[in-house]
Specification:
Layout: E1 4-8, H1 16-23, E2 29-32, E3 41-45, E4 48-52, E5 65-68, H2 76-88, E6 98-101, H3 109-122, H4 131-139, H5 152-172, H6 180-194, E7 198-199, H7 201-210, E8 215-218, H8 244-247, E9 256-262, E10 265-267, H9 280-289, E11 301-303, E12 305-306, H10 307-317, E13 321-325, E14 335-344, E15 347-349, H11 356-361, E16 363-370, H12 387-400, E17 404-408, E18 416-418
Parallel strand pairs: 1-8, 1-9, 2-5, 2-8, 5-6, 6-7, 9-13, 12-14, 13-17
Antiparallel strand pairs: 3-4, 10-11, 14-15, 14-16, 17-18
Helix pairs in contact: 2-6, 3-4
Length: 430
C-alpha cells in the first residue's frame, strides 16, 4: 500500500477517522501529526460507536502501533481520560501500542482559561480546549513539553517562564494570577500516567521505515481550517495540509496523499461558507446527516458540495485520490447542486480569495443535477449504485481534477465501495 497521508478537504468532519480505520487494516503504524483533542473522529465497529479525539484511529485494531507526533498539542488529562474510556470498552492502550513524542507541548489549565477569556472578545468559535494558546506558547518558546516532566530543575524553569507571561496578561484583565504550586500540582497529578508513553518518535518512525513498515499519517480538522491556507481568522491553530505530516512527526518519507470529502459541505463555528444553505435544504442535510460536532456537540452548518474549495485543497496538498463520504445523505433529494465558482462585485473567482471580507460576500455559482431518489445506505458494490449517483461522482472528479477511489455509504467500518484501486506515481513525495 505504501505510506499515506489522509487529510480533510473541507472544514473538517469529513469522515477521516473511518477512512483511516479502514486503510489501517493494511498498515502497521498510524501517526497523528497536528491538532489536539479538538479533533473528533467517529468510528462504528460492529454497531459500537467510538469517538476519538487525541488517539489515532488505529487504536481500535489489535497489533497496530499508534503514534502521537510532536506537532500535536497534548492535553494529558484528556489523553488519560480517553485511554480509560476505551479500556472500559475492551480496547487496551498501553506503551507497547501507543507512543507519544517527547517534544509534544502540553495543554494546561492556564491555556484553557486564556482561550475562554479571549474567545469572548474575538468570537472565532473555538472549542475552548486551550489548543491555540498552547501553540502560542510553543512558538513563543515558553511551552512545557512532555520531556520536561521528568526533570525537576528544567520543569521549574519552564513553569516560571510560562507564568511570567500568563500572569502578566491575567493581571491586565483583572484576572487572578496562577501560582507555581497550582501548576506543579496539576502536572504531578498526571505525570506518572503519561510518561510511560514518551518516546523519541522521529527516531522510532525512521527505524520502523527501515523495517519496511507501512505508515498512515492521520490529519485532524480540514484544509480550510489551516492556519495559513484556511478562512483566516476563522481557522484552527495548526497547519492541516499534507506537508505538515513531515514537520509534525519528524519522518521524511515518500508518501501518497489521500483527501477525504463529504458529498456535501459542513462547517462548525463562525466564518465564511459560500455554499451554505440557510433554508430547508440546509435543515434537511443537518437532520438526515445528524450533523452535530463530535467534540463540541455544536450544530454543523450545511450546504452543497463546493468543488472550488475541494479543487483548491487538492492542489494545496498534492492529493492523488479522493474518498467521498456520506453520499447516502443525498438519497432523498430531487435535485442536487454543486458550487463551481464564485462572484464578488461582478468578478468571477475559480478559487477562494484570501481576504476574509471578500470571502464573506462571495456569491456561489451552481450547476444542478438530478437526484437518484434511491436508498444507498450500506451499499457495498458498484453494481447496486444508481446511475445518477455515478454521474454525480463523475462530475465531481471532472471538477476537482483527481479520481474518487472510495466512497462511504454509512458510518460503519465495512460500508465502503472501492471504485478504483489507488494508482500513485512512484515518486510521490510531500
Amino acid at each position: 500500500m505504501g505510506n499515506i497521508v489522509v487529510i480533510g478537504l473541507q472544514w473538517g468532519d469529513e469522515g477521516k477517522g473511518k477512512i483511516v480505520d479502514y486503510l489501517s487494516e493494511n498498515a502497521d503504524v498510524v501517526v497523528r501529526f497536528q491538532g489536539g483533542n479538538n479533533a473528533g473522529h467517529t468510528i462504528v465497529v460492529n454497531d459500537e460507536v467510538y469517538k476519538l479525539n487525541l488517539l489515532p484511529s488505529s487504536v481500535l485494531r489489535p497489533d497496530k502501533i499508534s503514534v502521537i507526533g510532536n506537532g500535536v498539542a497534548l492535553d494529558p488529562h484528556a489523553l488519560i481520560s480517553e485511554i480509560e474510556s476505551l479500556k472500559i470498552k475492551g480496547i487496551d492502550v498501553n506503551p507497547n501500542n501507543l507512543m507519544i513524542s517527547e517534544s509534544c507541548p502540553l495543554i494546561l489549565s492556564v491555556h484553557k482559561e486564556k482561550e475562554n477569556l479571549f474567545e469572548n472578545l474575538n468570537k472565532i468559535g473555538t472549542t475552548h480546549k486551550g489548543i491555540g494558546p498552547c501553540y502560542e506558547d510553543k512558538v513563543g518558546r515558553r511551552a512545557i513539553r512532555l520531556c520536561d516532566l521528568e526533570h525537576a530543575d528544567e520543569l521549574n524553569k519552564r513553569i516560571d517562564n510560562l507564568l511570567n507571561y500568563h500572569n502578566a496578561i491575567r493581571r491586565g484583565l483583572n484576572y487572578p494570577a496562577v501560582t507555581k504550586e497550582e501548576i506543579l500540582k496539576e502536572i504531578q497529578e498526571i505525570s506518572e500516567k503519561v510518561l510511560p508513553y514518551k518516546k523519541p518518535v522521529w527516531k522510532v518512525l525512521n527505524d520502523l521505515i527501515e523495517e519496511n513498515k507501512e505508515v498512515i499519517f492521520e490529519g485532524a480538522q480540514g484544509t480550510f481550517l489551516d492556519i495559513d491556507h484556511g478562512t483566516y481568522p476563522f481557522v484552527t491553530s495548526s497547519n492541516t495540509i499534507a506537508s505538515q505530516a513531515i514537520t509534525g512527526s519528524g519522518l521524511f518519507s515518500n508518501v501518497h496523499i489521500v483527501g477525504v470529502a463529504k458529498a456535501y459541505t459542513t462547517r462548525v463555528g463562525n466564518g465564511p461558507f459560500p455554499a451554505e444553505q440557510e433554508n430547508e435544504i440546509g435543515e434537511n442535510l443537518f437532520t438526515i446527516g445528524k450533523e452535530l460536532g463530535t467534540v463540541s456537540n455544536r450544530r454543523r452548518r450545511c450546504g452543497w458540495f463546493d468543488a472550488v474549495l475541494v479543487r483548491q485543497a487538492v492542489q494545496l496538498s498534492g492529493v492523488s485520490g479522493i474518498v467521498l463520504t456520506k453520499l447516502d445523505i443525498l438519497d432523498s433529494f430531487d435535485t442536487i447542486k454543486i458550487c463551481v465558482g464564485y462572484i464578488h462585485n461582478g468578478k468571477k473567482y475559480d478559487y477562494l480569495p484570501a481576504l476574509s471580507s471578500v470571502q464573506e460576500e462571495l456569491e456561489p455559482i451552481y450547476e444542478e443535477f438530478p437526484g437518484w431518489k434511491e436508498d444507498t445506505q450500506g451499499k457495498r458494490s458498484t453494481e447496486t449504485l444508481p446511475i445518477n449517483l455515478i454521474k454525480y461522482i463523475k462530475k465531481i472528479e471532472e471538477l476537482v481534477g483527481v479520481p474518487i477511489h472510495l466512497i462511504s455509504t454509512s458510518p460503519k467500518r465495512q460500508d465502503v465501495i472501492v471504485l478504483k484501486n489507488f494508482e500513485f506515481s512512484e515518486n510521490a513525495l510531500v
